[in-house]
Amino acid sequence: MLFWLTELSDGGDLFNLFRYITFRAGGAFFTALIFGFVFGKPLINMLRRKQKFGQPIREDGPESHVLTKQGTPTMGGLLILSALIFSTLMWARWDNGFVWMLLFVTVSFGFVGFLDDYNKVTKNSHAGVSGRVRLAIGFMIAGFAGLMATLMHPPELANQLAMPFFKDTLINMSWFFIPFCMLVIAGSANAVNLTDGLDGLAIMPVMIAAGTLGVIAYAVGRVDFTGYLDVHYVPGTGEIFVFTAALIGGGLGFLWYNAPPAAVFMGDTGSLALGGALGAIAVATKHEIVLGIVGGLFVVEALSVIIQVGFFKMTGRRVFLMAPIHHHFEKKGWQEPQIVIRFWIISLILALIGLATLKVR
Description:
two-stranded antiparallel ribbon
């Protein structure tokens, strides 16, 4: 919205700053951060009043959670999403299709997560919306988002899969590209959802991944950068940097209250929305495979569940003491802060590897 102030600029005044993506990204970050600090406490107080028993704790989960997390309210993702949406609408260009695509995915997955959280807290049960229903809706949202991205991509990139580490390498996926986008976006949403099991565990890796993808989006949206880095130019993706900056600001505002011991959980409202947003950014920037590197922690968390369930059905035995894998380390005696901080470190390392793909070609 504030971008339109550039119409008042003569090229050498304060209003001219709003032309720069980096300036508006900084504004989006601080707006979302302040939003989180201002509205965080009132929102948590409201959630506590509305949720008599807080988020239901699974009986088959780690025993310590029953004692330490009982009564903590959920749906804290509302704080992140409100800050993200408000800040993005204020600082991003409204004539950019990628911005609206990301907002569509974020709001849609957030709504699905909200319904899931609402069913859990009102019924005081960890069983929310049916997994099949949630997954089906997620695939529909992701399919529409993939179609939007394909229509906005240049003709030479539409329905193409870009390969990291290789110059000018594209794989024509034809009609299968939309189902592939569905797997990327919906898979990312559910992987982040599975990771959200300890205080602060999911939000920091999400911010790290968002920051990395934001830099990539800014780079592939500038023809001078893409020429130097030998990556594919995708016009308009630079504006995604504003969105990711708002996500990081809103995430930090939420982490202030989610740091151990958490005063609020993000719930499916936040985890599904943020995971879906990461997948959508990867699709928009033609960096779907790089998302698997940058978000490698989420991939491992999801794979640990798939392996555990599949192996148990085949043999009746378990590979991990408990899945997702962060619970496995809890069972092995690691303290919660140890797991969280070590997983943060892993996320940062993976993010740096993902950034390296921009130049290692």
